[in-house]
Amino acid sequence: MKNFVKYPYLAVALVFAMVIACKEGDSPKKANETILKGKTTILVDETLKPIIDDQIEIFESKYDAKITLVAKSERELINAMLNDTSSIAVLSRPLSDEETKVFQSKKILPKTTKIGTDAIAFISNKSRKDTLIDLEDVIRFLQGKEQSNVKGLVFDNPNSSTVRYINDLAGLKEMPEKDVFSFKTNEDVIKYVSENDGMIGVLGVNWLSQPKPNMKNFMKNINVLNVKGLNNIGYFAPTQNNIAEGKYPLARDLYIINCQGYSGLGMGFASFVAGDIGQRIILKSGLLPVRTPGRNMIIRNSINIEEKK
Fold it and tell me: Where is coiled-coil annotated (predicted)?
């Protein structure tokens, strides 16, 4: 301490060197990553994986970027973000105030980009003659009321966004154990319902609009149910048009949450998905984009018709 006082310029130089050293320790990742170049990992809610797979494939084909996609349940995903194991995520909800405060305490302001709207769907085995389901009936079943016509529900994962969404509708903190089952993935739900009568599967509609090739045989043996909402007199399927018109009662918005804290691939990928190409991919997938991509029309003054020889 005495030497620092005696040689103030030396003290300043040492502090400056320490700051530079700290910055250089963090610099390799930032230096090798821009909004359109580099490597990063993105976490995705497992119910949304198919559409984000498509987005990443096109993004990587256009830019010098490599994105590793890791699918997790919503609860696992949030915990990973809060524990600094990842800083970019695709969710079916924005961060809560409490979650946002955690990042703000680290001097990071999360950037949230809305990218579209999907829905939660109910499916049944083909043997079930009724293709209609009343959301109020589902809630009565979860609340343990005997007048419900639902016999059992199958979810993808006890920590998933679908479980959290349905619990919120029913006013429950935890899913009841009686006649409620959960597996690991949305594919597991499709397989189980296709092979078992009487159960109602609950999953992200993206898995139905974009089934993988290995799931097509299972898809042939299920019905996607039309749902009656709590304040609706009609039954509606989870189609793109019904979601757009606000008729389907289980629609939910999708978000990219970027907590990198610098201009990296999180910013570039979010801009891409929210842009023209990304929105076209969402539209083509059967989900609802935030904005409908425009179409360019060429108007000609004349049409040349070649004479047949």
Answer: none
Is 20 inside a domain boundary? Answer: no
Instruction: Clarify whether residues 134 and 235 are in a common domain.
Output: yes
CB 72 within 8 A of CB 80: yes
Together in a domain, 110 and 126: no
pLDDT at 295 over 80: no
Does position 2 have pLDDT exceeding 70, yes or no? no
User: What is the domain count for the chain?
Assistant: 2
Task: Output the CA–CA distances (angstroms, integers) from residue 169 to 89, 116, 137, 162, 251, in the order listed.
Answer: 24, 21, 12, 11, 13
Q: What is the pTM of this model?
A: 0.83
- Mean pLDDT calculated for residue range 120-127: 96
Half-sphere exposure for 254 (CA within 13 Å, toward CB): 28
Range of the domain at 91: 33-117+253-289
CATH of the domain at 216: 3.40.190.10
**Tens digits of residue pLDDT in 22-73:** 443 444 556 689 999 999 999 999 999 999 999 999 999 999 999 999 999 9
Specify the pLDDT at position 15: 37
pLDDT by residue (tens digit) across 128-165?
989 999 999 999 999 988 777 888 999 999 999 999 99
